[in-house]
Write a structure and sequence with these properties.
The protein is of the alpha+beta class. The chain has 16 helices and 7 strands. Helix 7 links the parallel strand 5 and strand 6.
Length: 337
């Protein structure tokens, strides 16, 4: 399944929250193979690999696995030793309790509060008295880390009842819908994840021998893991990823998912999206990937994505990103085989 891209608005929020110097940002962009010119275009997109490379580069330059988002840095190695302390827990509940204790030793800004009520588990970030208010992306990435590591520990992407954020929706709020397997709400009292409490009893299925590979791939392993179970929108995207040209219609997709076309459209509307929007976002992400990571001609990319001619592909891509495919390729990374 093709992973979603992230907007340059999200990337810029990351840079701003980290307080990184311009020289460090420039070096990270160069290391990730992203042109600095793209940063000025909020509608531009970066791939999973590009974002992960940017994040890793900033971690090294800032000497902080959470990019100086909080009052005390989480030095490189903090995630490794946190995971090592969790691996022999008998279930996820014990692992989360240990993690909450570990975080209290590592930083002063917030507590990871785990509670159960009416069959639901809430994993919340509770800011400590007197602690500075974190940047929105700091809370979002910390919760993403908790969700990603917890999912890795139990060997299953944890389905979420909902995700709450204690900040208003940013301009790039659409990106969050791709990162979480559950509905996202903004402007809530606390930033928190909600899941069925039965998951707390799940035994951990990972070993110390598997940890190095998980850490080597960070942040992909905890940020971009595929959602095989989750919202209908994610199932639709997964189907279209494999059948974009052959079975890319709403009718064929509904049949593949054992739904009527009417039910497909209704349920997608309830999730705040539509079939055409999912299809366009997938084609946009595939186009960005192919323009920045392959040497395919623009005409060939447009044809592969189902456009009748180059002009229609150019019009669609400009609508998605504000730029033509040629200009985007010129400002982006060098194409690779």
């Amino acid at each position: 399944m093709t992973t979603p891209t992230l907007s340059m608005g999200y990337v810029r929020a990351l840079f701003e929250a980290s307080g990184a110097r311009a020289a460090d940002v420039q070096a990270a962009l160069e290391e990730a193979g992203v042109s600095a010119g793209l940063v000025q275009h909020l509608s531009a997109r970066v791939t999973e690999a590009q974002f992960a490379a940017l994040y890793r580069a900033l971690v090294r330059r800032l000497d902080d696995e959470m990019l100086r988002f909080f009052s005390r840095p989480l030095r490189p190695g903090a995630l490794k030793f946190t995971c090592l302390s969790l691996l022999d827990a008998r279930n996820l509940q014990v692992a989360l309790h240990r993690w909450s204790l570990f975080l209290r030793m590592l930083q002063d800004d917030f507590q990871l509060a785990v509670s159960v009520q009416d069959g639901w588990c809430r994993i919340a970030m509770q800011r400590n008295a007197g602690a500075p208010t974190p940047a929105p992306i700091a809370e979002e990435l910390m919760l993403k880390l908790v969700h990603g590591v917890s999912s890795w520990l139990v060997g299953h992407k944890l389905p979420l009842e909902r995700v709450d954020f204690a900040f208003e929706a940013p301009a790039f709020a659409e990106d969050y819908q791709h990162l979480y397997p559950g509905p996202v709400r903004f402007g809530q009292p606390l930033s928190a994840l909600y899941l069925d409490a039965s998951w707390l009893e799940r035994p951990l299925r990972r070993s110390a021998q598997e940890l190095p590979e998980f850490l080597r791939r960070a942040p992909e392993g905890w940020m971009f893991a595929e959602f095989r179970h989750g919202r209908l929108a994610q199932r639709v995207r997964s189907h279209l990823s494999a059948h974009l040209l052959q079975e890319g219609s709403a009718q064929a997709t509904a049949h593949a998912l054992n739904l009527s076309v009417r039910t497909l459209h209704r349920r997608l509307a309830e999730e705040g999206t539509s079939f055409q929007r999912i299809k366009d976002e997938l084609r946009r992400d595939l186009a960005v990937y192919k323009l920045t990571r392959t040497r395919q001609s623009i005409a060939a990319i447009g044809a592969e994505l189902g456009f009748d001619n180059a002009a229609s592909f150019h019009r669609a891509f400009r609508l998605w990103t504000g730029q033509t495919p040629g200009a985007y390729r010129g400002r982006g990374v060098s194409a690779q085989e």
